[in-house]
Amino acid sequence: MSKGTPAVLEKLDVGFEGFDIISYGGIPRGRATLVTGTSGSAKTLCAVQFLAEGVKRGEHGVFVTFEERPGDIRENMQSLGWDIAEWEQEGMWTFVDASPTLDQETVISSDFDLGGLLARIEHAVHKTGATRVSIDALGAIFTALGDSKVIRGELLRMVFALKTLGVTTIVTAERDAEYGPVARFGVEEFVADNVIILRNVLEDEKRRRTIEILKFRGTTHQKGEFPFSIVPERGIVIIPLSALELKQASSNVRISSGNGEIDTMCGGGFYRDSIILVSGATGTGKTLMTTEFMAGGAEKGEKCLLFAFEESREQLVRNATGWGVDYEKWEKEGRIKLVCAYPEVTSLEDHLIQMKDAVDEFGPQRVAIDSLSALERISTQKGFREFIISVTSFIKHRETAGLFTSTTPTLTGGSSVTETHISTLTDSIILLRYVEMYGEMRRGITVLKMRGSMHDKDIREFSIDGKGMHVGKPFKNVVGILSGNPQHVSALEEERLKDMFPDG
Amino acid sequence: MSNSVLKLFVTGRTRRSREAVRNLRSLLSTRLPPAYDLSVVDVLENPEQAEMDHILATPTLVKHGVEGTIRIIGDLANTEEVVELLGEKGSSEESAEDRKNEEDG
After folding, report:
1. B32, B89 in Cβ contact below 8 A?
2. A141–B77: do the CB atoms touch at under 8 Å?
3. ipTM score assigned to the predicted complex
4. Which residues of A are catalytic?
5. Does residue B92 carry a pLDDT above 50?
6. Which of A105, A119, A145 sits opposite B47 (nearest CB)?
């Protein structure tokens, strides 16, 4: 760019949740933005939602359709809760129907221009005072009129004319592969300023939708792919991962874990805004710790939200009752909310959106997820890592305490994939482990990490009874618990080691 | 058989538009049957008409008939093709008087 003083490009909100974050405010106003994607990557939805957002803000829109008939678009968008026919009646929405005609015969000779189309678009824009135009999908015109120098020249003229009209335009175009040329027919030549790519990748038998801003000429945006989902009434909802900055205030206020003995081990309880990971094999007491965490909050008058992905509501309530916690009573009083879902019912992205919604609606001071590992089943590794980053930052952002559980694959020792993803994001890690001693399974607990605080370094034995969890004495004369190979050492050996490392 | 309408959509007074109008008029007076009424529509002045007839390209000649719509895109210099699509003069006994009605309909 050769301009002396770079003017700040104004941006226009397209209406996809989260897009304002990855695009720093929307698409460049008064320009054309190309949206490309393979078949079924939500291009038309993108074009429709751009106008729908305008209608919401009282801005008129013109929708030029080259592929689908207006009637089909009206019908398809109804399921998302958008009544285009009503907007048309109100004069907020105008279709320019350039979809294929069912003629008896069409003969095309070389000498023509797109004057008819241009006149129709310009007329529709002038008539309604539209500020937003969507063109869906540009490639179809090559199918209708052939790929020629004339068409290319004319499309260039169309985009220029739209710029002159001062409208902001979204142009969609199809591409053949998820990773390859930007679009079929090289249409990016016409709308070269701004390019967004939608993807719908099949990975490990799971579909994953992402959006990437390839370029915004003259203005900044976030780089890379961001997962998104399609939600009824809301359309495209983007999950902006890196937008979650680490700027949350750090609190020194301690809250109880719901168990006095664990509080003591943690040096006086968890921090108000910390994320705690509880890791252990199946049956070591993770759900119990979650229950105590919830009850501990509810007793103090806090609101606590539990996402359970392993047990049904009935099971949860029954288990809690067994430990002396009455979930149903707390629920009636509005202190506790249980959200139980089977991980497989929907994609991880949709789970995340639903979880965010639940947190927004309930406004809890404590959030627990039991367990993260259950969610790992339904996602790719990459998707799962993004999910954990997103959910952690989201909870931290609200200065809410979060307790997540993670299941280790082996009974003794070991660590789970979940931990490797999450351990750097959490403030505290508590390990629950089986310890095999003299042909008996005992349970051990240790606080591995407690950011910003002193904590008990011992591995202590604990037991579970009708009143919950009881932490006892440290395992003496045992080494190798965490590695899963407990070995007994004689008292003499222990004394000798202590002498070697005084105060250790 | 009543007269059917040929609609020729053009954009302003471009060379291409003028060419198409001239080619079509010449064909109407020489080769095409007399049972056609010609209506020349300038899309710049009459975009609604273009909308109704789904016009993308100009010049486009549109003929609506019982068997469907015939669309000929281009400047109509492809004489033989146009004649083949619209019919040759000779089947009708009426005098070859072409009528030119600009912008009606």
Report:
1. yes
2. no
3. 0.82
4. 67, 310
5. no
6. A119
